Amino acid sequence: MQQTHRRPLAWLLSGILLASLAVVPAQAQDRAETWEFDAGLIWSDSLSLDGEMGTGLEVDDEIGFTLGGTYNFTNRLAAGFGISWLSPDYEATFLPEDGQGFESVRADMDTFTIAGKGTFNFLEGPITPYVELGFGWTSVDSNIADGPPITGCWWDPWWGYICAPYWDTYTEDLTSWSGALGVRWDVNRSWGLKASYNMLEMNTTGDLDDASLDTITLQAVFRY
Asked: Which residues, in sequence order, are CB contacts of 176 under 8 Å at separation 6+?
């Protein structure tokens, strides 16, 4: 399966980061031996995957949420974890089992990623570009039922005995790795801001090529 998408924001942000290397003074910032936690928004670019015999997948751009925690070993070196959630709309085009014409379905998928990350800050000052590498796990839920509904029953303390149907959906758990190029600004000793361009590579299974997702994140950082 061939993947096509655009990365204009990556070039723009990369230019800003390279320019900051030339103009930011290397004033020391005491990040060493501190914990920090971040929360923010993540924007994912649209994604197009072309499959065999005219099949394919079109994923819309979307805004989601991200959380993370990091320990700063020095002013430049850090390691931690990150979690992100996205629910983009998508349209899948496929051939039915009888092979009679193409069919398409539109729904929204839920993606959840958790990863360990290592970070290198280029400068020790309060404003610094940084690079980040991560490896983890991504879960993708198509929100499309993979069979007939199943009825489950339980006892509710308010409403009594309740039975309701639910559906299993097509899901896939994937290993994934990520890379980021960003810039951070430590406003003061307690908090700061980060912005970054990120690429998430998901190791798909079967006949599909690995899928790569471009994202932009904006985060608030709280340090202790």
From this structure: 113, 115, 135, 136, 137, 138, 200, 201, 202, 203
